[in-house]
Amino acid sequence: MTAVKESAASRRAASDGSARGSSDGSSDGGGDNGGSPSTRRPLPWWKRLARDRAVLLLALPGMAVIVVFQYLALGGNVIAFQDYQPYLGVERSLWVGFENFQILFSGDPEFLAALRNTLIITLLQTVFVFPAPIILALLLHSLVSNRVRQWVQSILYLPHFLSWVIVVAVFQQILGGAGLINNFLRSHGWEPLDIIGNSDAFYALLTSQVIWKDTGWATILFLAVLAGIDKSLYEASAVDGASRWRQTWHITLPGMRPIIIMLLILKLGDSLSVGFEQLILQQQAVGLGVSDVLDTYVYNQGVLGGFWGVAAAVGLVKGLIGLVLVLVANKTAHAFGEEGVYRA
Amino acid sequence: MSTTTTVERSRTTGPNDRRRPRTRPVVDGVAMPGPLERTVKGVVLTIACALVILPFVGIISTSLATPEQVTEAGGFVLLPTGIDLSAYQMIFAGGVVTQALWISFLVTAIGTALSLALTTTLGWALSRKGAFGVRAMLLLVLISLLFNPGIIPSYLVVQRLGLLDTLWALIIPTSVSAFNVVVVRAFFVQLPNEVIDAARIDGATEWQLFWRIGLPLSKPVLAVVGLFYGVGYWNAFFNALLYMSDASKWPLQLVLRTYVVDGAQLGSQDLGIDAASLPPQTSLQMAILVVSIVPVLLVYPFLQRHFAKGMLTGAVKG
């Protein structure tokens, strides 16, 4: 996330490096005005290549994985414009232009349902899941005892490290037909509740699962930001007689604003990816009607259904929309004088 | 670290001189919370912690409880009256669960080693500012953080490389996390230049710099990154679902989905045993859950000690 910001930082750092290149000798001699300090002329590229071959060799295996599985894979999106047949491969499958994309505009009911479900879940996540760690972080930060805070943190971080399969299984065991809560209700002569497998309760279930799994973990960033707020601001305001609530409102929340905005922008870019694993695991229980989202639609249509071209088209549009949303949101943040995710 | 002082809230020379000055202890500039606030916070946090802990207690208890108690409870047991390990004996008897555990273990061990090797070498190379091509490569890594090629294209690449239905499909595509590369690089960048220069003057090669200086000085971050990779491989479900159609090569998460989430019945032949009577399905399911959670619980304290230090410096800085 901050990585993108870091690119700017590292560019600055890199030019710093070359500025003091004379003392760093051969290692930091690159950059625009690096190289031999006496002439200030850059080495020819083949000399730098020869000089830095060990560094390149070290980078090679890792870069290969990133290039193949990110950049080369990106090229696989061309099958969105093909009638892709696995036994023919990308080279020999027929090109069909935008035919696969027509499903987006022709109003295929399954696609529309997936789109609608995705948007509903995104909305729920923004309203309920996003603020939860902010509130929890404020709560944890306001604890006076460090020891209590560390214990609570240790416990609440834990669910993040469980797989979605385990989380879904745990929820089934607690809320399912033979689960803890229904056993309790039955043993007291009450009607059992149908929560798992009930399409009306499905979105509430999804939301509570995400909150259970990741709220604690997501506080880490906010707590780091809170710890970095200048203590003297609090002290000064306390002397001026500010109450705890006024301190929160006028010091703490403004201090958190940049990171909140940054995370919102990143979330926006991801807003059409609403949790493939969580949803695919529960489709059998509630049916596709409420649980099919764009990612599961792509998987079901492409990998399971064999409609490769259509699935790739949907995936491609989804990815492009996400990218555009990040770029627009970042620009908007700049327009409002915020730092955003990156500066370009 | 907190400094406790007392700030008098009302001015001593004000018109309210008669009133007893209200004093409240102040910690780091923030006044101590009142009793009401403290009670509310205590209740909220206790409930939150209970919501996390109680499911684990229930799962472990049910896996250990006697078959009679599980049957009588109709499923979930919160406090076992007796202890019965037969569910564990059966899932370790050599059937599908044992096999899946073994596969997950292999994938986690090989994957973590490979990931660490690739991530640290790439992170080190990217920290060598000014070297040929480093800036371009860093840009490629950073841009890859912004997009995801998509499910179908990823599948096609794995298929093309002939990795479908091999354990490598669970390892190689996720072996380098761009985010972790950036974190590791951030650590290498902040190593003191003097140490590296001194070693170079002594004639150290690039590999020696990396192996003798970079790695030993970055142990905390390597521990965290390694454990994150490890937990990732152990929990991997998406790749397994996508790339492993051969059920005999399923890792643990797919077995969990089939027999716990989807509730398929585990019979004697699945478990690889000759038993007239099996423990209740619930006991078996909870035992599988427990064995899939335990490794995470074992590394967790270690992870916890390091991640504040390791992750935050990498992530928050920027």
TrEMBL record, chain A:
For region Disordered, the annotated ranges are 1-39
Chief location = membrane
Annotated TM spans: 54-74, 119-140, 161-181, 201-227, 248-266, 307-329
**A cellular component term (GO) from this record?**
plasma membrane
Name of one Pfam family that matches: BPD_transp_1
Q: Where is the composition biased (Low complexity)?
A: 10-26
CDD domains annotated for this entry? Answer: TM_PBP2
Identify the keywords attached in UniProt to this record, alphabetized.
Cell membrane, Membrane, Transmembrane, Transmembrane helix, Transport
Keyword Translocase annotated: no
UniProt-annotated location(s):
Cell membrane
Q: Its topology with respect to the membrane?
A: Multi-pass membrane protein
Q: Name one GO biological process term.
A: transmembrane transport
Specify the superkingdom: Bacteria
Q: Which InterPro entries match?
A: MetI-like, MetI-like_sf, UgpAE/MalFG_permease
Cite the ABC transmembrane type-1 domain residue spans from the record. 115-329
UniProt record similarity statement? Belongs to the binding-protein-dependent transport system permease family.
Q: What is this protein called?
A: Putative aldouronate transport system permease protein
Q: Which organism is it from?
A: Promicromonospora sukumoe
The record lists the lineage as:
Bacteria, Bacillati, Actinomycetota, Actinomycetes, Micrococcales
UniProtKB/TrEMBL annotation, chain B:
Low complexity bias (residue ranges) = 1-15
Q: Which residues cross the membrane?
A: 42-64, 102-126, 138-156, 168-188, 221-244, 284-303
Keyword Ribosomal protein tagged:
no
Determine if Transmembrane is one of this entry's keywords.
Answer: yes
Q: Which UniProt keywords apply?
A: Cell membrane, Membrane, Sugar transport, Transmembrane, Transmembrane helix, Transport
Domain ABC transmembrane type-1, chain residue ranges per copy: 101-299
Q: Which InterPro entries match?
A: MetI-like, MetI-like_sf
Protein name per its UniProtKB record = Multiple sugar transport system permease protein/putative aldouronate transport system permease protein
